[in-house]
Amino acid sequence: MLGGMLQLRRGRFLFPSHVSTRIILLVIHGFVALLTAGVIIGYAQLYPLLVNTGVYHHYCPPNTNNSIVCLKQNDKLVDMFTIAASLATFVNVPGGLILDSLGPKITAWTGLALMVPGCILFSYSSASFDAYLPAFLLLSMGGPLIFLSVLPSAALFPNKQALVMTMLNGAYGGGAGVFFLFALMYDYFHVSLKELFLVYAVIAGFLLFVVLLFWPWKPWHDDDQFPTLHATPSIQSIDSDAPVEKKWVRKFKIIRGNVKSPHFMYLCILIPFLILKTNFELSTTSQQLSLLIPTDPHQDLYLTIFGAFVPALGFVSGPLGIVMDKFGISAGTILLLFMSALSSAAGVIANGGVQIFRFAIFSIYFPFIYGVWGATIAYRFGLENYGFLYGLISIFAGCLNFAATPLSDMAVAANSFFAVNIGFLVVNCLLVIYPAIVWIHERRQKTEDAEPLIRQ
């Protein structure tokens, strides 16, 4: 039925005319993102499983209990996450270029081609064959590429792009549920780590065929329905009969104009900061609880709740896209920073209930970061250079993310995460200034534009 509604022209899918077809395609794209994109956000769920199965335990002193993480083992696991999280942002640069030049299908296949060997390599890693790091790096690179390939599907609903992008990012956040399920299967059904990742490899292999059937070679685009974005001129304005050299000169000028825009410069500060902050929180959750509420006997319960919140509440970020569609991108950015500030403020309050509230807020705003990121690029600059601009911001995010380890070391040395969380809170509040000014300016301009129409 779906295949009959997808029409081809010159080897490429036409824009689906049936709303039901577009909804089905969006659900498929979101489900694939959920299955494959959560290796970094799901690390909080994966970490206890890695400890219990003895990953890097051979770095511990002899006769150390296998269920107790030693300092060297923890350092290796945190370093693995930090390197992988940074690489996951860097890979968006070549991934964006692949998306812009070769299209979503090739981008998704590239990601899956990294995931399958990553799963197999991780499953066969051990103390004698220590390939955990390269295997995890392959997984961390594959997921973002697959996720990049689903973002252009926001064009299926031109007037609801922000909502669709945040829903897709909600699916990304829900991807942590894969590793929460891994932990449950290990605890209750005694499925080994090797078996879990081999099954994951089979799933990734099957998704190669799903991509073949339902991913377009080039992003969907309907000239009749696609709205005029508040962006600098796009490559679509270039005459299709113009020489190739002239097209690339014009394209370069458009990209240069985008990069010099204050909106883009602000994104290059906002997104790296928020990714550093969230990756820091993900990798230090257990340590922060142990230092903040050391006498609370329910710390393991709080971590279990956090593990459940991340995939479950990630979907709640989806409807937040309505805020951007209705009130504008700047309003969505202010809302994002407000939730981030609440999370930082809660991080200095020594109360178990407050920490549960913090986990809930974090689980909602973390995937919303990527929704604001993607929707801002689409609305401000269009979709033609989307992958390149997305990847360029990722370079800055990847570089800044390396600060997570020294920040963690500083907090552990001080025996408190108070200073780091207050620092995050201060920067968070400063970053609200720019979108607040833009939002006020855009609202005023909209009112002024409407006044002549009202008089008529």
How does the SSE layout of this entry go?
Blueprint: H1 2-5, E1 8-9, E2 12-13, H2 19-36, H3 43-52, H4 71-90, H5 92-102, H6 104-123, H7 132-150, H8 161-174, H9 176-189, H10 193-214, H11 244-260, H12 262-292, H13 299-314, H14 321-327, H15 329-346, H16 352-381, H17 386-401, H18 404-414, H19 418-431, H20 433-455
Antiparallel strand pairs: 1-2
Helix pairs in contact: 2-7, 2-8, 3-9, 4-7, 4-17, 5-6, 5-7, 5-17, 6-7, 6-10, 8-13, 8-14, 8-16, 9-13, 12-16, 12-17, 12-18, 13-16, 14-15, 15-16, 15-19, 15-20
Brief rundown of the structure:
It is built from 20 helices and two strands.
Overall structural class, as computed from helix and strand content, comes to mainly alpha
Shape: globular
> How many β-strands, per DSSP?
2
Biggest sheet overview: 2 strands, antiparallel
The sequence of SSEs as H and E is HEEHHHHHHHHHHHHHHHHHHH
Helix fraction bin: over 70%
Radius of gyration computed on alpha carbons: 23 Å
Kindly report the average pLDDT value: 83
* Strand neighbour order, sheet with most strands: 1-2
Individual helix count: 20
Distance between the termini: 50 Å
Strand content: under 5%
Instruction: Catalogue the unreliable spans.
Output: 7-11, 223-240
